[in-house]
Every structure is written in structure tokens, then in C-alpha cells.
UniProtKB/TrEMBL annotation:
Signal sequence coordinates: 1-21
Organism per entry: Brachybacterium epidermidis
The entry's keywords: Isomerase, Rotamase, Signal
SUPFAM superfamilies in the record: FKBP-like (SSF54534)
Catalytic reactions of this protein: [protein]-peptidylproline (omega=180) = [protein]-peptidylproline (omega=0)
InterPro entries reported for this sequence: FKBP2/11, PPIase_dom_sf, PPIase_FKBP_dom, TAT_signal
Domain PPIase FKBP-type, residue spans: 226-314
Ranges for region Disordered: 23-43, 174-209
EC number: 5.2.1.8
Alphabetized GO MF terms: isomerase activity
Pfam family membership, one: FKBP_C
Hydrolase found in the keyword field: no
Keyword Zinc attached: no
Protein name stated in the entry: Peptidyl-prolyl cis-trans isomerase
Length: 318
């Protein structure tokens, strides 16, 4: 039986699936090797030596004889779900537990207070074999993966992840009741797919504190600290009105754990208490964005304008 201890960090949950964006023990990139199909796993069928509990109503137990040598990526479906099958390009939300394969120690678990996680099922993002595996999985399934994760010190760890697929994020744009903006900032026009554009460059002096305007009010749960937040966004520079970044242009939503310092302060502090489905404009001065020094960041010294669609907020366990 594995040993348990309290949450170490949010890094594993933010990655969402082990072995997909980490370095393997021999220095290769598992994005190039990926996870294997659901019929028995990698070259050594690593997960055939692992027993995972099937009770979806409780935290999974993971049993194996430690140390378990993870010599190849492996992935299996433990319990098939009765929901729709994940498709290529879908963004999925999951709840996971991560176990150190070398010791059997539980490193992090949603059931013990870690954040939820998620990912876009895209071959360029997670590797072709991993994407192939996840497009055989249905919502409601419990899966297990063997792979690697790189620590903040650069050390590679062999891990077992057990994840429960909770849902597919949909829709991929804000939906709710349009609001009446103040008129202090440029109006927003939405394309057919929901992508925003500004009706002209901002005028006058920008606000000295981060300002939030609600453009569309959604009807979902309110966002809160510790959520795994999934959103679409576009950003413009106040001084020129020029767009500098957009998740819409990349064709994939952006996700992060709220309130953990993973993003700029203007996002961390001002995307809280918003119903899922909402769209907001954030006008963020340098102090809450990338600082005052343009030598430290190309957006240093600039006030930024963002239009953000809040698509999903996966809560920590209560």
C-alpha cells in the first residue's frame, strides 16, 4: 500500500498528465514517445504490475512493489466512463493523484486538497501517441499513466498518475447576459467564433489601478482561489492599441491554477468571483502586469488591455 503525505506543490496538477511535457530518465522527451494505448501499455507493460482501485466515488488507491522501474511510457483505462468519447482538440478537466514510482509515496492528490487539472488533447501539445490514447477515453473514466515529470531542480522523477476524467470544456466562448460597459474603454466586437476585437485604440490616460468591466455575465459557478481556471483571452497594449497575444489565434484555451503566482497579478487577483461563462475586460497597469522596466520584459512599462472569456473553473475539493 502506498504511503500518503500532504500536498507538496501545484506543479503536477498544472501539468495535468505526466510524461506529456517532461524529460524521461534517459534524457529523451516523452512528447516524442507519448503514452501508449489502452490495451496493455508500453514496451514493458509497466502498469500490469500496478493495481488501481475502481471505486470512482473515493480517492484511488495505487498498489505496486516499489521501486517500480518506468522504462517506457504506459497508459491504461482502469474504469471506462459512460460519457462521450474525447475527441482530438477537446479540452478536458480531470482530477488526479500522483505517486512516486520509486517509493510508492503519494506526492499529490486532488482528494487531499490539490488543484484539479486539465489539458487540450492535441498531438502537437501532448504527443501523438498520448493524444491517440486519450481519444479512446470517455468522460467519467478512470485512467492510469506511467511516465516522468521534471522537478524544479531539473531532476526527472518516475511517476504513476491516476486520473478521473470529469468533463470536456464547452462551450469555448462566453455565454450569458450582455452587460452595459462604462464607455470609458473601447467597445468590443465579437467574431463568429467569439474572438474579440477592439473598436479602436484606447484614448486618454490609462487607469493607475487594475480595472475590471463585466461585458457578459455567465451563469456558472463563481471562480475562486485554487481553481484550475480555463479561459480564452486576447491582449492589447494601451498606448498603441496593437494586439500582442491571443489564445484564439493559437486555437486553444489557456489554463492555470488561480492565485498561485503562475500568471500576472492582474489575472491572479481580478479573475476571482466571476461566474463561469462570463466575459470581462481587464485594464492592467505595469505594476500588476510585467513591471516598469522594458529591459526585463518586452511589455514592461505598458498598461495592458485584456478581454477574457471564463470557460471553466475546476474547484479544489471542499
Amino acid at each position: 500500500m502506498i504511503r500518503r503525505r500532504t500536498l507538496l506543490s501545484t506543479a503536477l496538477a498544472a501539468t495535468a498528465a505526466i510524461g506529456l511535457a517532461a524529460c524521461s530518465d534517459d534524457g529523451t522527451d516523452p512528447e516524442q514517445t507519448g503514452a501508449t494505448g489502452s490495451d496493455g501499455g508500453g514496451e514493458g507493460a509497466i502498469l500490469s504490475a500496478v493495481t488501481v482501485s475502481e471505486d470512482l466515488g473515493s480517492e484511488p488507491t495505487v498498489e505496486f512493489e516499489a521501486p517500480l522501474q518506468v522504462t517506457a511510457p504506459d497508459a491504461v483505462v482502469v474504469v471506462p466512463g459512460d460519457g462521450e468519447t474525447i475527441a482530438a482538440g477537446d479540452t478536458v478537466i480531470m482530477r488526479s493523484a500522483y505517486v512516486d514510482a520509486s517509493t510508492g509515496e503519494m506526492l499529490q492528490s486532488w482528494w487531499q486538497g490539490a488543484p484539479a487539472g486539465g489539458m487540450q488533447v492535441d498531438a502537437q501539445t501532448i504527443g501523438e501517441q498520448a493524444a491517440t490514447f486519450f481519444t479512446t477515453v470517455t468522460v467519467g473514466s478512470r485512467f492510469a499513466m506511467a511516465g516522468w515529470q521534471q522537478s524544479q531542480t531539473g531532476q526527472s522523477m518516475s511517476l504513476i498518475q491516476v486520473g478521473d476524467i470529469d468533463r470536456i470544456v464547452a462551450p469555448l466562448r462566453a455565454e450569458g447576459k450582455p452587460q452595459d460597459p462604462s464607455g470609458d474603454f473601447p467597445a468590443v466586437t465579437l467574431g463568429e467564433n467569439g474572438a474579440p476585437s477592439l473598436d479602436g485604440a484606447p484614448k486618454g490616460e490609462p487607469p493607475t489601478k487594475t480595472t475590471r468591466e463585466l461585458l457578459i455575465e455567465g451563469t456558472g459557478d463563481a471562480t475562486r482561489e485554487g481553481d484550475f481556471l480555463t479561459m480564452q483571452y486576447t491582449g492589447w497594449a494601451w498606448d498603441t492599441g496593437e494586439q500582442f497575444d491571443s489564445s484564439w489565434d493559437r486555437g486553444a484555451p489557456f489554463s492555470f491554477v488561480q492565485g498561485q503566482g503562475m500568471v500576472i497579478t492582474g489575472w491572479d487577483q481580478h479573475l476571482l468571483d466571476l461566474p463561469v461563462g462570463s466575459q470581462v475586460m481587464l485594464v492592467i497597469p505595469p505594476a500588476d502586469a510585467y513591471g516598469e522596466d522594458p529591459e526585463l520584459h518586452e511589455l514592461g512599462g505598458k498598461t495592458l488591455v485584456f478581454v477574457v472569456d471564463v470557460l471553466d473553473a475546476a474547484h479544489k475539493i471542499e
